Amino acid sequence: MTTQVKHYIDGEWVIGGSKQQIAITNPANNETIAMVNAALTSEVETAIASAKAAFKSWKEVPVSERARVMLNYQHLLKEQHDEIATILAQETGKTFEDAKGDVWRGIEVVEHACNIASMMMGETVENVARSIDTYSYTQPLGVCAGITPFNFPAMIPLWMFPLAVACGNTFVLKPSEQDPMTPQRLIELFEQAGAPKGVIQLVHGDKSAVDLVLRHPDIKAISFVGSVNVGQYIYKTATDNLKRVQVFAGAKNHCVIMPDANKQQVINNLVGASVGAAGQRCMALSVAVFVGAAKAWIPELKAAIAKVKPGLWDDKNAAYGPVISPAAKQRIVSLIAQGVAEGADCLLDGTDFTVAGYESGNWVGPTMFGSVTANMKIYQEEIFGPVLCCMNADTLDDAIEIVNASPYGNGTAIFTASGAAARKYQHEVEVGQVGVNVPIPVPLPFFSFTGWKGSFYGDQHAYGKQAVRFYSETKTITARWFESDLAVASAPNMTIDLK
């Protein structure tokens, strides 16, 4: 029996009236596990109108009460952590451990949102001029929207709507149509946490739903995570319609390996960071740059990656699961073939990998290329699969030149025992998130997710203080009060009025 995924519009769970149905499939065998009706234009309009109406009252709710909703929400998410991870694993193909990590990283952002009162504090200067004070308030924008990808269906929605709502906004979430069951469960729990009617809306659909959100005059800010081409389209369209926009797009993350690094630590970390999660994460290390004598470690790295075996979500021995769809697999396989045709040395080829009994699944085994150069398509494009490209550089300066020539700047890492080399790298590299002996340097939520260059379009990044600035406006007041207007109190007031 397949599940019917629902929309959450104006405080009601509805199937929707569209005849356009989207199938949600199990990536391990491509069998349909759920269906969702794409939202009608009228349904998206209703969701936005409901959010706009709810904003009038929600923005007046004291910040401490909004924080209590987040406290309730993080408690419910922790209580249902494994249940959410199970749903997520079944619709994405992720292993259970990987799915739990997806959920937990989202919970950490909700925990951060519980501290919203201190993050929304303004500034005050007394006597900026004679008897004149200036102070600022941080106020919400209105209706915000989030468009999220398939690869992190718990974490990335939780990057967005909890902080936006905690700031006093209302929110319309449009998740990936490939795995909408996880976002549905997140919104169910948010409703249980005490979010009033209209504060959160959930609509499912395709490009037509996205286009309506991008152009609708009542949407004030839009957050997006996804591919480069779609991200550029969303940024251009939304900014043309005078929206505030943050777009997190593609990546091609490099790991620089110095010959003085701890070899075993490098190998252990590179294996998981390159092919873990089937390579379907924007912070995956998809390029390893071996400096000088470190290139001698490539055969040992190959042997370690060759031991990695994909499998089903509930297989405790599986390193990762299938990729999300047949189309995703076909794209990865095509790029692998092109890498071979362009002259890269295919050290491991995972294109023919299958899991017994699940031969129709979207399986791609771990793949590794040597002798990769910057003019090859497997280097230039984000493969988004379990594929590692190995390059060589004579010096650290040469490695930095390779990294900085890339149009992307999401994440990078250096493995070294030299503080001087690490300091030089983190200072000179043109990438927003740098790991020193840390393979995937995703910051915790009290910082911000700070991709650079072609990996990000916008001004303020996700979560942390930057997200609060993205989801709010600053109002500055300059005030003068004249002493001659002082009223004389008739009697002392001995009560404290907190209303």
Low-pLDDT segments, ≥5 res? none
> The biggest beta sheet, please?
7 strands, mixed
SS content category: alpha/beta
As a whole number of angstroms, the C-alpha radius of gyration is 25 Å
Strand-residue fraction? Answer: 15-25%
Q: Please report the number of helical segments.
A: 16
Specify the overall morphology: globular
The beta-strand count equals 23
N-end to C-end Cα span: 53 Å
Order the strands across the largest sheet as they lie in space. 15-16-17-14-13-19-20
What percent of residues adopt helix (DSSP H or I)?
25-40%
User: What is the averaged pLDDT score?
Assistant: 96
EC number: 1.2.1.27
Pfam family, one: Aldedh
Family: Belongs to the aldehyde dehydrogenase family.
Protein name: methylmalonate-semialdehyde dehydrogenase (CoA acylating)
Question: Could you walk me through the main structural features you see in this protein, from its secondary elements to its overall organization?
Answer:
The chain is of the alpha/beta class and 499 residues long. The protein has 16 helices and 23 strands. Helix content is 37%, strand content 22%. The strands form six sheets. The chain has a seven-stranded mixed beta sheet with strand order 15-16-17-14-13-19-20, with helices on both faces. α15 links the parallel β19 and β20. The protein is globular, with a radius of gyration of 25 Å. The protein starts with a strand and ends in a 19-residue tail after the last strand. Pfam families: Aldedh. Its EC number is 1.2.1.27. GO terms for molecular function: oxidoreductase activity.
